[in-house]
Amino acid sequence: MFQAKRPAAVHDVVVIGSGAGGGTVARVLAKKGVKVTLLEAGRMLTPAKDFKEHKMPYDYDHRGAGENAEFYTGKMQWGYFAAPNGWWDMPGEPYTVAKGSQFRWFRSRILGGRTNHYGRISLRFADYDFKPRSFDGLGSDWPITYEDVAPYYDLAEEFIGVTGSVEGIRSAPDGKFMPCPPPRVHEVLVRDAAAPMGIRAVPARLAIITKNHNGRAACHYCGECGRGCITASNYSSSQVDIFPAMKTGNLNVICNAMVRELITDDEGLVKAISYIDTETREERQIRCRVCVVAASACESARLLLNSKSPRHPNGLANSSGVVGRYLMDSVGRDMTGYVPSLEGMPHYDSDGMGGGHLYIPWWGLDNKKKDFPRGYHVEIGGGYGIPQVGSSYGTCARTEGYGKGLKAAVRREYGCYVGLSGRGEMIPNEKSFCDIDPKVVDRWGIPVLRFHFQWSEHELKQAKHMQQTFAEIFDRMGGKLLGANKPSLETPEISVPGAIIHELGTVRMGKDPKTSALNGYNQAHDVKNLFVADAAGFVSNPDKNPTLTICALAWRASDYLAEEMRKGNV
Question: Which of 141, 380, 445, 468 is deepest in the core (most CB within 10 A)?
């Protein structure tokens, strides 16, 4: 089923990358009858073999520790038995960070990409998120509006399945929702503590189906979404987009294909893609009528910057010089507190959906007194999950001795910790970007990215506001901030750039070809048969996780591309 077919002389559409953007494009076009070839740098995914959804630590020698560790070792994203092939430090595929900067880059090398790993939080951008400069004078406006994207939010939510409730909150637009499970005890405590502060917690919006849907079984509430979902109850492009699209006969998937560059003809259009077969190390070319790049924001920028030619001396689609520029990540601040009122409570199965059953949308939209622009949302963690690395939050370090006394302390504190995670908007700035390192190449001989990044005062002040807000919520719950979780309210703590894994904005769209690389349909201004369908095209980075918007914009671009192909314009 998964063997690559013999390629035709010229492929109609070649999609590079199989994540949320690439998977959506491949499915939408294949369903329309377009012949699509998808190139994935990683290997094929076999859910029954690769996902460790129902495995326990004791199922593995030494509980998975050692060189072949199945749990968090710095290579995986988080927790025991994460979904496969996700890397912070990928062997043979380095990146560099400029002096004075910090940046961490998480990558995935398997069909479906990072949709196998992400938290499934699915939030629509608000009306003002598409017009940020008009809203407060900072950043740039998108060339499209909420009204342009809303029909595709509807399509994406109805197709993939998103939980939630209709709340009428401007900062959190309502959508097409499935029922969300009831909140857990720790979430109720947070909700009730935040309410007197004018902060409202609402049912979470997650790409996890709670009813049978499109041949997928409803979530069985094992709480192990980070390991992958064998029943495809949560969204991943591999299971929900790509596998069904392959059954149409219109989608051909080629895995282990590391793309080196896009090759253009005399008119400057993409005529072929050069890639390395990572199993044989042979370089191959595949010809195309249209190319859709969706390799993830930074990988897509890297590919375009490495695709130089006489007509495109600064890289493909880069006459504006913005490719790689205006790199953004979400502002992050996490805080954990110990809540004594949870001690001694009968333990119950709090697994539910992976992630929280409640979240807090931004509540300060009309607050004129705050000293930072835009805002953030809050994610809530806690409960009685499978103990993971660090889940005792320092119990062992704080407790003297070992044996019976230590075990009693761990049992007493189990389930008494609550986490609050702020995820906020970064304003794009010219000091945050990625370019090609002039000296370093990966194991395939492809020049690597070099990251430059700087938070501004906007983000630092926002992180300080998160700290102050979280401290007050914990205080109202009677919670205790311990050790490293105690914030210095004078010195803001903020996430390492890239660590939230929401990088975007490196191939921004816009109306003016002099200041943007793409038009409002994700089509390159300079190269009409080139589209970029991941988060690289984002103009701003609202306080919402980007995946749902990637899906919606990729669907919109696919409809436009199919019509342009029908008309013979590309």
Answer: 380
**Strand 36-39 to 11-16 pairing:** parallel
Indicate if the alpha-carbon torsion angle 174, 179, 180, 183 is positive or negative: positive
Instruction: Tell me the C-alpha distance between 118 and 14, whole Å.
Output: 25
Q: How buried is 32 (Cβ within 10 angstroms: 0-12 exposed, 13-18 middle, 19+ buried)?
A: middle
Q: Which of 362, 333, 346, 277 is nearest to 494 (CA)?
A: 333
Enter the CATH code of domain 1-45+109-160+235-314+507-570: 3.50.50.60
Distance from C-alpha of 371 to C-alpha of 366, rounded to nearest angstrom = 13
Cα gap 124→193, rounded to integer Å: 26
Condensed to tens digits (0 to 9), the pLDDT of residues 90-120 reads 999 999 999 999 999 999 999 999 999 899 9
The CA-CA-CA angle for residues 558, 300, 98, to 5°, reads 155
Helix (H, G, I), strand (E, B), or coil: what is residue 450? strand
DSSP 163-225: B-----BTTB---S-BPPPPPPHHHHHHHHHHGGGT---EE--BSB-SS-BTTBPPP--B--G
Nearest alpha-carbon partner for 320 in 151, 172, 454, 519: 519
The domain spans of the chain are 1-45+109-160+235-314+507-570, 170-214+334-424+462-493
> How much is the pTM?
0.94
Tens of pLDDT along 316-374?
999 999 999 999 999 999 999 999 999 988 888 888 998 899 999 999 999 989 999 99
Phi, psi of 188 (to 5 degrees): -65, -40
Non-local CB neighbours of 479 within 8 Å, separated by 6+ positions: 337, 338, 339, 340, 418, 473
Q: How many CB atoms lie within 10 A of CB 538?
A: 26
